[in-house]
Specification:
Length: 94
């Protein structure tokens, strides 16, 4: 992903509203890292948008959140939180 355009992490980006937000951002020149639990859904998106980044993670597991952050290795300009989980945490803990 190029650093010329803003980089956005979309949590819950493998389906639903998060996926649509990620697609919209992609079409408007943003570098998007789509994140979701379903590797299969992310792989389908990757076929359509190969220039973006895709990382599987289950946000209900703290260890997977830490691993996701380590794998991104790109400075982020923003985060879209659209994950469909109920276990809400304070934003600074994400």
């Amino acid at each position: 992903m190029s650093n010329a355009n803003p980089s956005i992490l979309v949590l819950g980006g493998s389906s639903g509203i998060g996926k649509q937000i990620g697609i919209h951002l992609t079409k408007n020149g943003y570098n998007v890292c789509f994140s979701g639990r379903s590797k299969e859904k992310l792989n389908l998106l990757k076929e359509e948008y190969p220039c973006q980044k895709f990382e599987s993670a289950d946000l209900s597991k703290t260890s997977e959140i830490d691993s996701l952050i380590d794998r991104i290795q790109t400075p982020l300009d923003g985060v879209v939180y659209s994950a469909g989980i109920i276990d809400l945490k304070l934003f600074h803990l994400m």
